[in-house]
Model the fold of this input.
Amino acid sequence: MQMELLKWLDASNRARLLDLINNWWTERKAPQELFIARVVPIFKKDEADDAANYWEKAFDKIQHDKLILALQRMGFSSQFCDVIGGFYKEPTFFVKDDFGLDVQVLKGSRLE
Done:
């Protein structure tokens, strides 16, 4: 959900959304569907057939276990670290292919 859309929610819908978020916080996890990203590669230059000519995905560069350790060292609560760790439990994203179709990719998979 884009943050801009929140201003259009009435008080009842904002309260419902807050209840959902508070429940996720209390349970220390949210539905995994919330963390599926749709990625559209951005062409940089040269040959369009070469994957190196597209901007890379930042979340692939994060070492998730090291992120959680860093948060713990900085004094974040175990609850906060559990919630953040849940974001990266099964990172999944979709990449739009040359035909306009979304291809699901799990972290660690290679696109050939």
The first helix runs from residue 3 to 6.
